[in-house]
Amino acid sequence: MAAAPASPTPTPEWTPQGEASLLARLRRGEDAAYEELVRGLSPRLLATARRFLPDESDANDALQDAFLSAFKALDRFDGASRLSTWLHRIVVNACLMKLRARGRRDERRIDDMLPKFDGTGHAMEPPSPWPDESMNADRREVRELVRAAISELPDDFRNVLMIRDIEGLDTAEAAVVLGLSEANVKTRLHRARQALRELLDQRLREPARANAGGKGL
Amino acid sequence: MLGRLWYAFEVLVLRRPHLCCRDVADFLMAYLDGELPASQTRAFEKHLAVCPNCVAYLETYKKAAALAKDVCDEDAAIPAPPESLVRAILAARKSAGPGPHDHHHN
Q: Which of B64, B52, B61, B53 has the alpha carbon at shortest distance from B30?
């Protein structure tokens, strides 16, 4: 399956100057400005929503909720960040609220997913490099393994990984969105990355072990 | 949990010069972000110079995060949202009523 193009290259309107001009028009209540905002940012914001909420209907709802929250809060937006960045955070928040409303899934404890060490501090299962073919995200099998591993992470840890490593919010922004201290964000992120590594290690090295027995990937 | 807290104390407070593989795993993110004290950074690098297992751990730790981003970026490369959604958002704004500064220009 050919990959769809990545999020559209920002048009001149999404420069800081363009956004400042748009913000002024939004504050004057110009309908055309609202339409420009929604049409211009929806693709990348919907992409964000789909990362948290794979169900199309849930993602569309979260996007709509986010825009409506933003419209109501526009008078309070102080311009300290870019308009697109502010909206991105609102979308992330809307997605987290939707996930919380669902309630907790049955999930494994993060401690069960972390590496284990013996009394001398050595790994119980010594790490080794991953096979080269496992490092290629273009391969369908690798993408499926990675998606499955991410979905296996407990919610609190998957959300931090999504927000920091995938959505690119910094620690301070993530702390605000998640309602955590910055120290907690860092701890959870590290554990999420460690758990993800363990989950991928089990799956990516299996073909290599199988190859040693003569079977292919 | 107490064991891990004691390790943190030894590494960060007592500045224990020799790290074990568990220390590398526990403090890897702080090392990669440049947040360890200089003496502990040196201890980290000393350990990595002699421990291929930890080098493999560091590389696969970084690769796991990179794979997650690559896959999610590719998954999210979707076309523009449906026109019906855009219209619904704009209509919902209108039905929410005018704000204090709204002027409806057509």
A: B61
The span from the CA of A127 to the CA of A136, in Å, is 19
Instruction: State the pTM of this model.
Output: 0.79
Q: In the structure, what pLDDT confidence band is assigned to residue A131 with cuts at 50, 70 and 90?
A: confident
B10, B11, B22, B74: which to substitute to probe chain A, counting the most A Cβ within 10 Å?
B22
ipTM value > 0.90: no
Q: What is the dihedral of CA A200, A140, A4, A42, to 10 degrees?
A: -40
What band does A159 get if pLDDT is binned at 50, 70 and 90? very high
B chain contacts of residue A117, beta-carbon cutoff 8 Å: 20-22, 25
CA distance A172 to chain B (A): 15
8 Å CB contact between B100 and A27: no
H runs (alpha helix) in A74-120: 83-102
Task: Please tell me the distance from the alpha carbon of residue A185 to that of residue A192, in angstroms, as a whole number.
Answer: 10
* Average pLDDT over every residue of A17-44: 92
Contact criterion met (CB < 8 Å) for B100 and A75: yes
